[in-house]
């Protein structure tokens, strides 16, 4: 539970941390489409800042010149200049923001969409590993950080950097000795900044990971609300959450401490340099080597540079946060789908590397199995990618032939690997050895999309999406008609309750709609599996939540569907097994027996136990 | 109607277009966001004052610079020429001190304000989370996890922006505006008044900006929540998403939501641009106008030139914070919109509240273990209408095991949920040893009643952690004992790290049946006086179910139990069977009696016998 929420990322936060710049450069493909606007905006910002610097000079000239000389024409002219510059400054400021507003919102959206698309296509094994809160926080807070970075620090690091550079040159040109004194803190400041940057980057990364954990805990606390309430654990859950937020607070404060130090130094060191220049300048004035006016001008130029220097601290901080966000984002984006195709039938992109990951396509592939239709497992072995290398594989040497049109029941003790085996057929996972053929076609040579178009699944856990009841069913078949919908609902004995919903089949269900009971969800999921008249049907304990009466009705209707479909049905009970022509017994990841229900009941003690509990009461 | 009764009850009403849940606009009292902010900041009043003082001092050290220059030129130079180094040394010392002081003050400011902002965020996150946990099931069934996540993450984040950046902005703006306006008024009444007058049109801009950005930011928060809801739904259903090739339709749906957010997001940024342009325009025009007016006054001799020079330099600085004011308002409105949503959530009252004055249960009698359950004139209907259970009375004797069966949609689960106090009855009372459930504190209630449902959710953490939810202070031995009692020990020890195996995300590698066993072990560990099992064995295989039943014989001894099961095998251990139909109890008796009666139960029993084959 939440007290011990693990964070797969925090463990591997550091080793490969790139420099912030390298991380941020990876944003280029997303920024590229708006580069013209961004560059223009940066130029506009520079010009606007220059105008901002010029206005006081004009004002000074106006007061010292025309006004002092009582020159009405000059006053009007000067006033006109001030007005014009003021208008230009205002419009340019607005222009800068206008230029980047929509494009940067667009960059954020494009990155989010790319993340979402990518996540949908990553293998299930990836999702097993990553808590969804961590993924979600990458798609929300991290991307917001990136947008903010592109809006503000990126431009102003440039603008302020230019200002400091130009200002430095001007200062040196005005009086090189004073200029050198003023520029003396540059090196220590740079050293400080780089130390700070590395530390801050790590701290930023930590807080962002913790924010991801926080998201996970919030999500779990809602998804598991019935258990929390059922055991009255909302206090301890809240305590766990509090611990996590306190850890987050501690990291945030650590970040603030770092920022406070660097900002403090960024403030103090230039001030000391200015003080030094003042002392040196005063000496020179006293010696008559320098006029008082020049010293004043020099110092006011130096003061103008104070803000650009001070702000570097937090601009760097924001950039480092953005870099950490970029790292987090690309950590997910860099995950490659093993067989890298789109989830669609007409797979676009690179289908060339499909066979990777399974030792198939070898010369003996034209064996008898290929000629055979149906669903064939030959020598299939499977080990979860994150399993310890020395642990036994979850499935080993599975060889099983389900003939076309045949229904095979898969029976095995709890945890024997039944669900894992069924997940191989729609290529939710790929076997680590051996192969699976569908009507003679090697599954590994089919794209995931093609495989999934042939195979329909009803999962053990019936998940409905936020859509209407009818849409949820119709997801199962690409070209399914209204008549298919009715038929599928009838098969699942779901037509009655669907029609009784407030808007019938058009009623919104799922998380954002009406909540249905477990049995209702299961029947809609079953209807979804059969609506497209798939060639291959995988049913994982499809009737577990139904009562005896409904179960009998569904079985009768399902029998007709199964008569023409090649099907693999995970079964816990004799009544479900009887839907099948033959039964395969899965024991500890191996198929130990295949035969009809009655044969196995007679000959196989393990099967008899599974079907009757104590080896008694069988027919 | 052919419905089953497991899982959540159907809502008689589906969210309509005007529904406040569907639109993510929960009713919120006026000014709720402001009072929420005030209540969050109230405990930090002192620190906020400290922040203001630190900033004030810092401004002072900044202003000291020019004075120091003046002193150096006016005093130190003549003194130097006279051979006196004292004043120059004084300048050097003071300059160093000022520098160190301003750096230190900056450091102090960041640290104090970070403390304030982090404590406020901690407080707010805690409030959202605790409140979310306290709200009743019927709320969660409608609000969606995505929205709650959005409230606790992105919405809190926008308050953080306000606190981190806004605090400094606001204080600096106020300080410098007050300081400069006062100086202007001191220099010349006319200019001061003119500068004040320019605040009029600026105020109008600020107001319209605030109005517009309020709308935009509220829309933005809703749009973000929509994106998050879709995001989490997809991630949580990734298997069916991939198996049914929902990727493309999902891409399209997500693109729509995301694009909506993009538009609103862009609109928010454009509002800011519009504000910057218009307020800068007013400010710059005001500067030009005042300068011209000043020039005219100098020409007419009513104003000294030096005063005008000073005024002109200050004027620019007066309007400098306008952009920063815009940024502040920006983060303020963004935070206010989020706070509004959060306040709406916090304003929701649990429909199953904790009692103000909790009562403790009487000690369990040694002679009759378990507790007596009584439903007195209980009626249950959804708040929107739709009666589920018409008025009924029912007493379950202490220590008995009562099975509830019946056609689907009969109200079995609702009965169980009333007993578990997931819902409160619309009328009547549910009593545990004579005490109304509504008068029990949560801790006391859960010592009394625990419910195991068929959906066995696993939290991230280890298997042992998941069992320990039943009783967090349980030792490892007790946890293993509970697992052994229910037949879960073998599969758990076969896991890579045994009890310390991380179940990862939502128990990916633990089968549904095994998860139900973990759920059972959890309930056993909780050791309640009344145990409710709602379809708790639906995913077990037959040996597993048998093992559980054998365990039940010992486990249920000394407890009152209410068992709902489609598979009547469970009923063999029941002392008493209730048959429900259409929300009413239609048959009631021992299993043997009911089978002999040849009623509904006898028919169900026969059908089940046939199905087990």
From TrEMBL, chain A:
<feature type="transmembrane region" description="Helical">
    <location>
        <begin position="75"/>
        <end position="95"/>
    </location>
</feature>
<dbReference type="GO" id="GO:0005524">
    <property type="term" value="F:ATP binding"/>
</dbReference>
<dbReference type="InterPro" id="IPR039421">
    <property type="entry name" value="Type_1_exporter"/>
</dbReference>
<feature type="transmembrane region" description="Helical">
    <location>
        <begin position="145"/>
        <end position="170"/>
    </location>
</feature>
<dbReference type="GO" id="GO:0015421">
    <property type="term" value="F:ABC-type oligopeptide transporter activity"/>
</dbReference>
<keyword id="KW-0472">Membrane</keyword>
<feature type="transmembrane region" description="Helical">
    <location>
        <begin position="258"/>
        <end position="283"/>
    </location>
</feature>
<keyword id="KW-1133">Transmembrane helix</keyword>
<dbReference type="InterPro" id="IPR036640">
    <property type="entry name" value="ABC1_TM_sf"/>
</dbReference>
<feature type="region of interest" description="Disordered">
    <location>
        <begin position="338"/>
        <end position="369"/>
    </location>
</feature>
<keyword id="KW-0813">Transport</keyword>
<feature type="domain" description="ABC transporter">
    <location>
        <begin position="375"/>
        <end position="613"/>
    </location>
</feature>
<keyword id="KW-0547">Nucleotide-binding</keyword>
<dbReference type="InterPro" id="IPR003593">
    <property type="entry name" value="AAA+_ATPase"/>
</dbReference>
<dbReference type="Pfam" id="PF00664">
    <property type="entry name" value="ABC_membrane"/>
</dbReference>
<keyword id="KW-1003">Cell membrane</keyword>
<dbReference type="InterPro" id="IPR003439">
    <property type="entry name" value="ABC_transporter-like_ATP-bd"/>
</dbReference>
<dbReference type="InterPro" id="IPR011527">
    <property type="entry name" value="ABC1_TM_dom"/>
</dbReference>
<feature type="transmembrane region" description="Helical">
    <location>
        <begin position="38"/>
        <end position="63"/>
    </location>
</feature>
<dbReference type="InterPro" id="IPR027417">
    <property type="entry name" value="P-loop_NTPase"/>
</dbReference>
<dbReference type="InterPro" id="IPR017871">
    <property type="entry name" value="ABC_transporter-like_CS"/>
</dbReference>
<dbReference type="GO" id="GO:0016887">
    <property type="term" value="F:ATP hydrolysis activity"/>
</dbReference>
TrEMBL record, chain B:
<feature type="transmembrane region" description="Helical">
    <location>
        <begin position="302"/>
        <end position="319"/>
    </location>
</feature>
<dbReference type="InterPro" id="IPR036640">
    <property type="entry name" value="ABC1_TM_sf"/>
</dbReference>
<dbReference type="GO" id="GO:0015421">
    <property type="term" value="F:ABC-type oligopeptide transporter activity"/>
</dbReference>
<keyword id="KW-1003">Cell membrane</keyword>
<dbReference type="InterPro" id="IPR039421">
    <property type="entry name" value="Type_1_exporter"/>
</dbReference>
<feature type="domain" description="ABC transporter">
    <location>
        <begin position="373"/>
        <end position="607"/>
    </location>
</feature>
<feature type="region of interest" description="Disordered">
    <location>
        <begin position="1"/>
        <end position="26"/>
    </location>
</feature>
<feature type="transmembrane region" description="Helical">
    <location>
        <begin position="85"/>
        <end position="105"/>
    </location>
</feature>
<dbReference type="Pfam" id="PF00005">
    <property type="entry name" value="ABC_tran"/>
</dbReference>
<comment type="similarity">
    <text>Belongs to the ABC transporter superfamily. Lipid exporter (TC 3.A.1.106) family.</text>
</comment>
<keyword id="KW-1133">Transmembrane helix</keyword>
<dbReference type="GO" id="GO:0005886">
    <property type="term" value="C:plasma membrane"/>
</dbReference>
<dbReference type="GO" id="GO:0016887">
    <property type="term" value="F:ATP hydrolysis activity"/>
</dbReference>
<keyword id="KW-0812">Transmembrane</keyword>
<keyword id="KW-0067">ATP-binding</keyword>
<dbReference type="InterPro" id="IPR011527">
    <property type="entry name" value="ABC1_TM_dom"/>
</dbReference>
<dbReference type="Pfam" id="PF00664">
    <property type="entry name" value="ABC_membrane"/>
</dbReference>
<dbReference type="InterPro" id="IPR017871">
    <property type="entry name" value="ABC_transporter-like_CS"/>
</dbReference>
<feature type="transmembrane region" description="Helical">
    <location>
        <begin position="170"/>
        <end position="187"/>
    </location>
</feature>
<dbReference type="InterPro" id="IPR003593">
    <property type="entry name" value="AAA+_ATPase"/>
</dbReference>
<keyword id="KW-0813">Transport</keyword>
<keyword id="KW-0547">Nucleotide-binding</keyword>
